[in-house]
Specification:
The structure is a single chain. This protein is mainly α. It is built from 13 helices and no strands. Helix 3 packs antiparallel against helix 9 and helix 7 packs antiparallel against helix 13. The chain is globular, with a radius of gyration of 19 Å. It holds the Pfam family EamA. It is found in: Membrane. Keywords: Membrane, Transmembrane, Transmembrane helix.
Length: 315
């Protein structure tokens, strides 16, 4: 059940129980969560690179279906070893819906957009709009408050995203289908995050994530078979990319996201995604040799500043 006021973080809950002033508990909670936040940004950023590499060997929906299936089956095996019961009834339905939105709609749309020519860096920047869209949805649906300072941080960060997009982007009619898929992916993660927070806040990480990934795999399997004819080349170079995208991006990345969502407000967690474009650009330069121009660098710095500002506000 979501309360009318924003959910308390772990440090805030401890302070409420013990009577310690909130200002004393908050810095410890932030410091303790720092590794998880850094890991979320790096892991999520690597997903754009694994997607770029994976599309060399598989069509977008086929790649997504394989990614979700491998990850879901791995988690299902872990749940079986732990003798965990799978969710049933209404809880199962809620988990499946959130999984389809966060996993299937978001990532298959990202892959489809990049397959149509949208660079991985631009894809990351478009998904970087997620903090604003998720925060706007969380206000009426989750009754979260977005303070003036937090809103300023979001706007500054989005301004950085826009500045970075402005460099080297040549939009044409040929770009519109790919950008349309990226917009669909943005809507998927925004709606899915809010749905997850509203209906799946007590999700068991292993069995719950297994259900979500397998549901996403089944949904994406339809276009993979009907539209693409299961187009994939199982080469030696493809397997490491598939395993990284499945086990690291899907299992670890989404697990970190849900863990932070259980402890903090949607607006605060989603603002971390404004760091993803800078991280993606850095990884792209190191791994793929992609160039970072001055406007892009300035925009990425501005987006980072906006994220830091958004994280300074009180929830």
């Amino acid at each position: 059940m979501i309360s009318p006021s924003p959910p308390l973080g772990s440090g805030e809950r401890s302070a409420a129980r013990s009577g310690v002033p909130d200002t004393a508990a908050r810095p410890v909670g932030r410091l303790a969560e720092l590794p998880a936040r850094v890991a979320l940004v790096v892991v999520w950023s690597s997903g754009f690179l694994s997607g770029t590499l994976g599309l060399r060997y598989a069509a977008p929906y086929t790649f997504a279906a394989l990614r979700f299936a491998v990850a879901g089956l791995a988690l299902l095996a872990v749940a079986g070893l732990r003798r965990q019961r799978l969710p049933r009834g209404r809880r199962l339905l809620h988990l499946a819906i959130a999984g389809v939105l966060v996993q299937a709609v978001q990532f298959s749309s990202i892959y489809a957009g990049m397959d149509l020519g949208v660079p991985s860096g631009l894809a990351a920047l478009i998904i970087g709009l997620y903090p604003l869209t998720a925060s706007l949805l969380a206000v009426p649906l989750l009754h979260e408050r977005v303070s003036a300072g937090q809103l300023l941080g979001l706007v500054v960060g989005l301004g950085g995203v826009a500045l970075a997009v402005a460099e080297g982007i040549r939009l044409s009619l040929d770009s519109l289908p790919g950008l349309g898929f990226l917009t669909l992916g943005l809507l998927g993660i925004s709606a899915g995050t809010v749905y997850q927070k509203r209906f799946c806040g007590q999700m068991e990480p292993v069995s719950g994530n297994a259900v979500q990934l397998l549901a996403a795999s089944l949904v994406v399997l339809v276009p993979a078979l009907l539209a693409e004819g299961w187009d994939v080349q199982f080469t030696a170079a493809y397997w490491p990319v598939l395993l990284w995208s499945a086990l690291v991006n899907s299992v670890v990345g989404v697990g970190l996201l849900y863990r932070l969502l259980q402890r903090h407000g949607t607006s605060q967690v989603s603002s971390l995604f404004q760091l993803v474009p800078m991280s993606t650009a850095g990884l792209g330069a190191l791994v793929l040799g992609q160039r970072i121009g001055p406007l892009t660098l300035g925009g990425l710095v501005l987006a980072t500043a906006g994220t830091l500002l958004a994280h300074r506000v009180r929830h």
